[in-house]
Design a protein that fits this description.
The complex is a heteropentamer. Chain A contains 8 helices and no strands. Chain A is mainly alpha-helical. Chain A starts with a helix and ends in a 5-residue tail after the last helix. By secondary structure, chain B is an all-alpha fold. Helix content of chain B is 68%, strand content 0%. In chain B, α1 runs antiparallel to α2 and α2 runs antiparallel to α4. Chain D has a domain of 470 residues. In chain D, 71% of the residues lie in helices and 2% in strands. In chain D, α25 packs antiparallel against α26. The relative contact order of chain D is 0.06. Chain E has one domain. Chain E contains 3 helices and no strands. In chain E, α2 runs antiparallel to α3. The chains are: A mainly alpha, B mainly alpha, C mainly alpha, D mainly alpha, E mainly alpha. Chains in contact: A-B, A-D, A-E, B-D, B-E, C-D. At the C-D interface, β1, α3, α4, α5 and α9 of C face α34, α35, α36, β6 and α39 of D.
């Protein structure tokens, strides 16, 4: 009880800080310095219609690299954690009743569609809302579906890892190419910018985002797979 | 509107933290943290909101030339995107930990893991 | 002041006079103490008899080098002390070897004999000797303190450490004596004097009844003879210092004899009146009664 | 040089690449990872080289081909280069260290380690706030993974607590970042710094949140339970990375944020930092787990650096030098210690006793501790010097005091630990034999010494590692495999040679000290020939002490003086620690010495007025309001070394428990360093008044009390060496008294004590040491009657005590004579009473010393005891000869000094005509005294020989015991509780009040540490609450102020 | 416009209510997790209102979708732990 009271008091203090922030907050009337630059220069410099994508993949590409690294790391660590002290010998040997026919069929039907949707989302990331992360999450949901239909299914970790690693390497490689061929790390202008709004535009962004999509998908899948392979406690 | 979202966000943060700091159950703590993270995301997006503008996507309705007057600030959105992904990463990690912790002591009570102290 | 060869015979003469005076004086004092206690006492020549007897003893043992050297140290201390202070004021010839050092030398040389004796007694291996030594050392730390303070007061008063100069400053009438110009210092010093004379009430070092004669327990024959000689010379040498510092010194031998007698008498009289103190009692006694006097003396100088 | 972005690219690329490798190809994966880390280190090293060799201008690295603030940019400057090098090397070495674990865990662990290293570099390099956040998250997550490398099951819980805490931090940081962005329209740190004013008006709260979040990443005390748990349970190699790499990176991030915060936020950083420094060090006192202790120490050190970051406003361009020095020293030392802890099986501090028998590892341990504490010649020392000078120059004294206090606490527990490791019963568990792990540790040692060299080279005060005496001492590290005889000869020759070499540059005062310390030291070293084998550790320690002494004498500026002071302190600590039961005493010696050293440091700093090159001569120019304080600080500092009463409790144990030939070094020689300091101080500053009190009068009292208490305590000791040790306190009291009299003869007397005390105390310690060696005990009552068996030792003791007691005709009398002459002109008389009483008390213990050992009854078990070894007796006999010569012609040593002192006290010089020495009051002719005494003694001796020629030699036991034969020699030897009646009378003065006082201080510190550390309940949720409470409290304090 | 604000307000209230539901200790963990997912989902609607479609998509797909599944995977494995 004392703990609750104390926490409440502390949060009241924090709420004071937040209240201060809200009170002193005044919405901008116009875009600030950075935002204005992005609004005005993205089209010609980057060639991406979706400015958020341009920022994510290019201007703040390093963040994004870090971001996929976070997922990569999480996937690796989840694997590490869950294999930590894991008894050898693989599967639990537990027999579950097979999933319903409906679900099985649905899955077989849906998985390719979902994968396609995911690919669409990240390939068009520079044009429309969505991109590698969203697309990757969608890809992972396909795997999720597979796992749901057959909890004992073992997803090929090798494949997932290979995709993940390759995508990551390509990402870094493109970044390095930016230094060699263009103005700096992760500069997208190693490829022609093309025309705004077209699929093949915005330089390397679609490529990068696609690989991000693959990578994110692989990473989420790997996490899900690892968690699903845990044993009941 | 920005104010509403912002206030909601802050409230979510506080609620989340309250939950994380008072629930002894590790899974509940993690749930509470996701709530707090959502709150943070709300606050961030709200900060970038400009009244009466559209999403920062150049298309037919937002020509390049008018972009600076028509769109809202894209930066917070980019940041939030990153934050969400990082958040899910951390959540996944914490969940894996929770599983292992449960495996080690057969309990999810955080106060049971006090072997290390002082 | 410097050394001349003629000083040597004169020093020997001084030594001879003081030694004989000492033998007689200690016997006389013993006699006085006995009479006060309604006893008959010893004859005044008893010391000479003892001396001859001790030298004449044939059986003699030694416990080792330090044991052997102990009495030598002891007597060297006594003789040396006598040599380092001028005996007769104004007499170049009876100033002895005082050119070698001043008052401080005399003060520290007092310990020479005690130290040697203590070492010799130590090697005798007799526990009573060691007990006597510890008692003596313990007591002397407290007893010396008022004296040191008094000496310091006197030195500050006369702005010199030279014994001759201190005596010179006291010439010109009895009222120039330190006794009257600085009575606090003299009072402190005289209390200290009582403690250093190994007489009751401060004779626990020798404590004839419980630890038969203390440090010299094992000594006999010619060793004892040397120490007896010292027991005649040493107190006189010490009294000479007191006389010079506080009582105007002595310009001639008769005055010397008189003053030494009187100063010695003080300790005897006190001795017959008071019972013996234990060591810790005497230490406290000195710290409580004598030291404050000394402190007052150095502060008021 | 290739772009710094490759550090990140290589790290990441390799991490991704690992996924493509086959699972079972572990060696390959491991090799690739190592290669990547090596490449990253190489790039950093290249940049360090570029920056150091070039103009050091930072290079901007753009990404996305766009200029900042629109795209993320990185920056590589000198600080960045050094830090990334540190991080990468730590990663590389830890990876080497972790070989077996990484092999077992496979490529995921390798990738995590790579990402951790990469991300820590990213934190350092990036100039973008949000990017900073991303890297922080990466580090946090990687930490969550690497914690699990530990075999310790508890690491799991620790990792979770860590994640909980980092979640809270994330929330605060993100909210802060977004509002700061809103306020400035940029995420670029430099851009925000330019708009600092705007941030601080509209976005003050935003900045607060960002700042506090970064501070929380520094694991600030006391909101850091989660971090401590990690330190305790994680694999030591990872703890090394956490402490060295991630803490350094986080500190640099805090530094970047302070760019934005500007001067208004600097005090907050300082406040949090210093609170953590003191608090964590306090808590560490109560730790018994090695890794947790190191964790507390890490927290403390990070706090210190944070406090320094907050002082950048006054440190100016020395800021990097200072903060960097402390940070790098900490990083290297802490990494090294964690790595070292991995070799040791047990987790108790005592378990480090397993190191015994591994001299190289012990050397590493000692180096790391010295690095951490900031002892010379390591970077922390230079840094602390300049920091303290700057702080004092600006009047930030409270901070200065707290820093020194915290450092003292830290030194306390570190050296306690070191002592336990060396002296406790050796742990049975072996030290892990892995050679590559050892190589990693040794590379940390090398890095530490290398940094010491670099910092020395960068310091305006000169490089200590180029000082010849110090180098000479270090040479002995290399000579360790040789035998004692060779090393001893080299040492003696070296010391004499140095003395001769520097002879022309000494003034008479320095000459006396140099002769005592160097020639005297060489003489004492003769005794070391009697030891066998290689005597590992002895020579480097001893020579370090002597090097310190040699440098001390020649020091002209405050820095070199202080450096020398610290060197001799460390050397003597190691030396003292060698004694068999000396562990607690060596510790208290070290703590007191360092406490004293810090006071000296503070004194110099106060006097220097901000000038790090302050010369000792400048002390004379220090003006009124601070001068007395400078005087006080320095005087107390020096008095810890002379063991003045109140600060003396370390001495008896330290001197008594030291080895036979070490006791004379630390007593006869080392104590003089304090006197030398006092001489320097008084010569430069003279008397000072504080609130109308003449400070030298206080010194008079202290000196007199020391003399009294020292002598009195000595009289009651049963242990011969303790007796001598207490007597040193008394003797130093005399010397202090003489100095404080502030007149010509007082100083002369003090100098006389320097010489005399050296000679007779060295002689006595050697003699007693030899006896203890032969009899196997130091308790005097167990001895007795040894005179016939050990005649030479007896002669040494006899001469020693005659000289010491001041009985004519030996040299001690000269000291007394000068003393009496000196006090006649002193203008303050009360304390003399104490001196007067302590003089005779000296007789008590001196007699006891000689009587109970050599005289009285010989014990049966000692009947076959032989004379002490030749090499112990030889120096004693040389000392005897010296004493005799010095007794006869004291003018030989004193005359020139007498003239020299006239510069300072023209009144009262002695006359040296002919054979007689004259003062204004009296005279003294040593030769005449010797002759007179000699003649009388000889005549009487001859007479006795003549009349007593037939004396028969009998055993001591042949005594008359009241008519009965005593039963046994044991019961007949009167020795135990020798001065019982004296104790009855004055025993109350020997009540160990001072000891009780210091014990109470230590107890209070320990008890409060033990009580307060219960704050760390172990509950991860509580930790998170504390974290939030920390935020709120800082906020309230900040707004309240 | 007013409509938009009203919607937003309503949404916010629902979000807060869901959040409170999510962190309350009394009910089953599954409900908590679902409530937290709901918070995310509703928040993504809020994002849409704030003209942030990218964020909205991400929050919906990752924050509410994936995370919830992750939770359930673990919840399913720690039977008995949910009542601690």
């Amino acid at each position: 009880m004392i703990r609750r009271l104390f926490v409440t008091l502390l949060l009241l203090g924090l709420a004071g800080v937040f209240a201060g922030l809200v009170v002193s907050y005044s919405p901008d009337e116009t875009l600030n310095l950075s935002a204005r630059y992005y609004a005005e220069h993205t089209a010609q410099d980057i060639g991406a219609a979706n400015i958020v994508t341009a920022i994510i993949v290019t201007f703040r590409g390093l963040d994004t690299l870090g971001e996929v690294t976070v997922l990569f790391l999480t996937a690796a660590i989840v694997g590490l954690v869950l294999s930590h002290g894991r008894r050898e010998g693989g599967g639990s040997g537990r027999e579950l009743p097979p999933a319903g026919e409906l679900l099985g069929t649905g899955t077989r039907l849906l998985v390719p569609l979902i994968l396609l949707l995911g690919a669409h989302v990240f390939v068009n990331g520079h044009l429309t809302p969505g991109g590698g992360f969203q697309g990757g999450a969608i890809l992972a949901s396909a795997i999720l579906l597979l796992l749901l239909t057959d909890p004992l299914r073992r997803i090929s970790h090798r494949l997932i890892t290979a995709i993940e690693s390759t995508a990551g390497l390509v990402f870094v490689g493109i970044g390095v190419l930016g230094i060699v061929l263009a103005g700096g790390f992760l500069d997208n202008r190693i490829l022609p910018i093309g025309n705004l709004g077209e699929l093949f535009s915005a330089g390397a962004i679609p490529i990068i985002y696609s690989f991000i999509g693959l990578k994110v998908g692989a990473e989420f899948s790997s996490m899900l797979a690892h968690l699903s392979e845990t044993e009941d406690l | 509107m920005a104010y509403i979202a912002m206030a909601t966000g802050f409230v979510l943060i506080l609620i989340g933290l309250y939950g994380a700091l008072t629930n002894r159950n590790i899974l509940r703590m993690i749930v509470a943290f996701t709530v707090a993270n959502t709150g943070v995301n709300l606050v961030m997006v709200a900060v970038g909101y400009l009244h009466g503008r559209t999403a920062p996507i150049l298309d037919a309705s937002v020509p390049v030339a008018e972009a600076a007057e028509r769109i809202i600030d894209p930066v917070p959105q980019a940041l939030v995107l990153t934050a969400i992904v990082i958040g899910v990463g951390v959540t996944a990690l914490m969940l894996a930990y929770a599983y292992k912790l449960y495996e080690s002591k057969r309990t999810l009570d955080i106060s049971a893991f006090k072997d290390l102290k002082w | 002041m410097s050394f001349e060869w003629i000083k040597i015979p004169y020093a020997l003469l001084t030594l001879f006079i003081v030694a004989n005076y000492g033998f007689l004086l200690t016997a006389v004092m013993a006699k006085i103490a006995a009479r006060v206690g309604r006893r008959h006492g010893i004859p005044v020549w008893q010391n000479y008899v003892d001396l001859i007897k001790n030298y004449g003893l044939r059986s003699s043992i030694t416990h080792g080098v330090m044991f052997y050297l102990g009495p030598v140290f002891r007597l060297t201390g006594g003789v040396g002390l006598l040599m380092f202070v001028p005996t007769i004021y104004g007499s170049e010839m009876f100033s002895n070897m005082s050119f070698a050092g001043d008052l401080i030398l005399a003060l520290y040389f007092v310990f020479f004999g005690s130290l040697g004796m203590a070492l010799g007694a130590g090697e005798s291996g007799h526990p009573h000797s060691a007990i006597g030594v510890t008692r003596g050392l313990s007591q002397v730390t407290a007893a010396e303190l008022p004296f040191a303070l008094a000496v310091y007061a006197v030195a500050v008063q006369y702005q010199t450490l030279s014994v001759t100069e201190i005596v010179a400053a006291q010439q010109g009438g009895i009222l120039h004596w330190t006794l009257f110009t600085n009575p606090l210092a003299v009072a402190a010093a005289m209390l200290s004097f009582l403690g250093s004379m190994m007489r009751p009430p401060f004779d626990v070092v020798l404590a004839p009844q419980e630890i038969p004669i203390g440090p010299p327990t094992e000594y006999h024959s010619s060793y004892l003879a040397l120490m007896q000689t010292n027991r005649a010379i040493f107190p006189i040498a010490k009294i000479v210092i007191y006389m010079n510092l506080f009582f105007g010194g002595a310009a001639s031998w008769p005055v010397f004899f008189l003053k030494v007698f009187l100063i010695y008498l003080v300790s005897v009289i006190v001795g017959v009146v008071f019972p013996r103190f234990r060591v810790e009692q005497s230490i406290r006694w000195f710290l409580i009664w004598a030291v404050p006097l000394g402190v007052a003396a150095i502060l008021l100088v | 040089m290739v772009s710094a972005i490759y550090i990140l690219a290589v790290g990441l690329g390799t991490a991704f690449l690992l996924g493509l490798l086959r699972d079972d190809w572990r060696a390959g994966a491991y090799g690739v990872s190592l290669a990547a880390l090596a490449l990253m280190s190489l790039i950093s090293a290249g940049w360090v080289w570029v920056m150091a060799a070039g103009d050091g201008r930072a290079v901007e690295i753009l990404t996305a081909g766009t200029l900042p603030p629109y795209a993320i940019n990185l920056r590589m400057g000198l600080a960045e280069a050094v830090l990334t090098l540190l991080i990468n090397l730590t990663g590389l070495l830890s990876a080497v260290y972790l070989r077996d674990t990484l092999f077992k865990q496979g490529r995921r662990a390798l990738a995590t380690l790579l990402v951790f290293t990469m991300a820590a570099c990213g934190i350092v390099l990036t100039r973008d706030l949000f990017n900073l956040f991303v890297f922080f998250e990466l580090v946090a997550i990687a930490t969550g993974g690497l914690v699990l490398l530990s075999r310790d099951q508890r690491a799991l819980a620790a990792g979770f607590k860590y994640l909980v805490a980092s979640q809270v931090i994330t929330v605060l940081l993100l909210v802060g970042i977004i509002f700061a962005y809103h306020a400035t329209g940029t995420l670029n740190i430099d851009g925000m710094a330019e708009l600092s004013a705007r941030v601080l008006q509209g976005g003050a709260l935003a900045f607060f949140l960002m700042f506090i979040a970064i501070v929380l990443d520094l694991k600030p005390f006391p909101a850091n339970g989660w971090a401590l748990d990690i330190y305790e349970s994680a694999h030591p190699a990872f703890s090394a990375m956490l402490s060295a790499a991630s803490a350094s990176a986080a500190l640099f991030a805090a530094d970047k944020l302070l760019l934005i915060g500007g001067p208004t936020w600097l005090p907050v950083a300082t406040g949090i930092g210093i609170f953590g420094f003191v608090g964590a060090n306090l808590f560490a006192l109560a730790q018994t787990n090695d890794r947790r202790l190191l964790g507390y120490s890490s927290v403390a050190q990070v706090g210190l650096v944070l406090a320094v970051l907050g002082q950048r406003d006054l440190l100016g361009d020395r800021y990097l030098f200072i903060a960097g020095g402390i940070l790098l020293a900490h990083a290297v030392a802490k990494a090294g210690l964690y790595w070292l802890s991995g070799l040791i099986e047990g987790r108790e501090l005592k378990a480090w006793s397993a190191l015994q028998g591994h001299p190289i590892l012990i050397f590493a341990f000692a180096s790391f501790i010295a690095l951490l504490v900031g002892l010379p010649p390591f970077p922390g020392f230079y840094a602390k010097w300049e920091l303290v000078i700057a702080l004092a120059g600006e009047g930030r004294l409270a901070l200065l005091g707290l820093i020194l206090f915290g450092a003292l606490l830290e030194a306390g527990y570190l050296f306690r630990w070191f002592g336990q490791a060396l002296k406790r019963e050796r742990s049975l568990e072996p030290v892990a034999a892995s050679s590559f792990k050892r190589a990693v540790i040794l590379s940390a040692v090398a890095a530490g010494w290398g940094l010491g060299y670099i910092w020395g080279a960068l310091s305006p005060n000169g490089n200590l590692l180029l000082a010849v005496p110090l180098l000479f001492a270090l040479v002995f590290l290399a000579l360790e495999p040789l035998s004692v005889r060779v090393k001893n000869s080299v040492a003696i020759v070296g010391m004499v040679a140095w003395f001769l070499l520097t002879l022309p540059s000494y003034d008479p005062l320095q000459l006396i000290f140099a002769a005592v310390m160097l020639l005297g030291g060489a003489l004492v070293l003769l005794a070391s020939y009697q030891t066998q084998g290689r005597r590992i550790g002895f020579y480097p320690s001893a020579m370090l002490m002597y090097a310190g002494l040699a440098m001390l004498i020649l020091a002209e500026d405050a820095f070199s003086f202080f450096a020398a002071w610290e060197s001799l302190t460390i050397g003597s600590y190691f030396l003292i620690l060698r004694g068999q039961r000396s562990e607690p005493h060596a510790l208290s010696y070290m703590v007191f010495s360092l406490g004293g050293a810090f006071l000296i440091l503070a004194g110099f700093a106060l006097a220097a007025g901000g000038d790090p090159l302050f010369s000792l001569a400048g002390l004379a120019q220090v003006a009124a309001p601070i001068a007395p304080w400078v005087f006080l600080l320095l005087a107390i500092g020096f008095m810890t070394k002379t063991a003045a009463v109140g600060l003396h409790i370390w001495l008896p144990g330290a001197h008594a428990e030291a080895e036979t030939d070490v006791s004379p070094m630390v007593s006869g020689i080392l104590l003089k360093a304090g006197l030398f300091g006092l001489f320097v101080l008084l010569m430069a500053m003279g008397g000072q008044q504080l609130h109308g009190i003449e400070l030298t009068h206080i010194l008079l009292w202290i000196g007199a009390l020391s003399a009294l208490i020292g002598n009195l305590m000595a009289a009651f000791q049963e242990d011969a060496k303790r007796l001598l040790a207490y007597s040193s306190i008394g003797q130093m009291g005399y010397a202090l008294f003489g100095l404080a009299m502030m007149n010509h003869l007082g100083w002369l007397m003090a100098l006389m004590f320097v010489i005399n005390h050296f000679i007779y105390k060295s002689m006595l310690f050697l003699s007693v040491g030899g006896i203890a060696k032969r009899t196997g005990t130091r308790d005097m009552y167990r001895m007795g009657g040894l005179i016939t068996l050990m005649p030479l030792s007896f002669i040494a003791v006899l001469i020693g005590i005659i000289a010491m007691s001041g009985v004519p005709p030996l040299s001690g009398f000269g000291g007394r004579w000068i003393f009496y002459n000196a006090i006649l002109t002193a203008d303050y008389r009360l304390p003399m009473i104490l001196i007067f009483i302590s003089g005779p008390i000296a007789f008590l213990y001196l007699f006891r010393l000689i009587h109970t050992i050599f005289l009285g009854q010989l014990k049966d078990e000692h009947r076959r005891v032989k004379e002490a070894p030749f090499w112990l007796v030889l120096p004693q006999m040389i000392f005897v000869a010296f004493l005799m010569v010095f007794a006869l012609v004291p003018g030989l040593a004193l005359r020139r000094v007498d003239a020299y002192i006239s510069q300072f006290h023209p009144e009262g010089a002695l006359g040296w005509e002919g054979l007689t020495i004259t003062s204004a009051f009296g005279y003294w002719s040593p030769i005449s005294i010797m002759i007179v005494v000699g003649v009388i003694f000889a005549s009487l001796f001859a007479w006795l020989l003549f009349v007593n020629r037939k004396a028969q030699k009998v055993k001591q036991f042949n005594i008359v015991f009241a008519g009965e034969r005593p039963y046994r020699p044991e019961t007949t030897h009167f020795a135990w509780n020798f001065f019982a009646p004296y104790r009855k009378a004055l025993g109350f003065m020997t009540e160990p009040l001072v000891e009780r006082f210091w014990a109470a201080v230590v107890d209070v510190l320990h008890a409060s540490a033990d009580l307060l550390r219960r704050l760390y309940t172990g509950n991860g949720q509580t930790y998170a609450i504390q974290l939030l409470a920390f935020v709120v409290v800082v906020y309230l304090l900040r707004t309240g102020l | 416009m007013i409509l938009l604000i009203a919607m937003s307000l309503l949404l916010s209230l629902t979000i807060v209510a869901a959040a409170i539901l999510a962190i309350r200790g009394g009910q089953s963990l599954a409900i908590s997790i679902l409530a937290a997912g709901l918070v995310s989902l509703l928040a993504s609607v809020q994002f849409l209102l704030l003209a942030a479609p990218d964020v909205a998509m991400t929050e919906a797909a990752i924050g509410s979708g994936l995370t919830t599944f992750l939770f359930f995977f673990v919840l399913g494995r720690v039977r008995g732990g949910e009542h601690d």
